[in-house]
Design goal:
Distance between the termini: 22 Å
Number of strands: 2
Helix content: 40-55%
Largest sheet: 2 strands, antiparallel
Structural class: alpha+beta
Strand order of the largest sheet: 1-2
Order of helices and strands: HHHEEH
Number of helices: 4
Radius of gyration: 17 Å
Length: 104
């Protein structure tokens, strides 16, 4: 079995992720809007990078980041017919940051 190496994230990487957020997207179940994240980004970036790094080091993905709100999104056709909707999972931004850091 070949081990993988995950390099630690930095506050600068988290700042880049926060700056790249679309202000029109919905917030997750934590109800933290994008503008709040952007206003507090210099305070949050070091904290988030530390939490993500500790989670990677411990090999644990926090349970509250596994939650998602599933909402129906209308596709087309008759809006009265349930099959004309598709499910969409709305996750917290913190969960998305974690995923993007791991992907990188």
């Amino acid at each position: 079995m070949n081990p993988i190496f995950l390099s630690p994230t930095t506050p600068e990487e988290i700042l880049t992720l926060i700056n790249g957020l679309d202000s029109k997207k919905s917030c997750g179940h934590d109800d933290i809007p994008v503008h709040a994240l952007k206003l507090l980004k210099y305070l949050q970036a070091p904290l988030l990078s530390n939490v993500i790094n500790e989670s990677i080091y411990d090999g644990v993905f926090p349970n509250n980041l596994k939650l998602a709100e599933v909402v129906p999104i209308f596709k087309s056709g008759d809006s009265e017919i349930p099959i004309n909707y598709r499910p969409m999972s709305v996750r917290t931004y913190f969960s998305k940051f974690f995923e993007k850091v791991l992907h990188t």
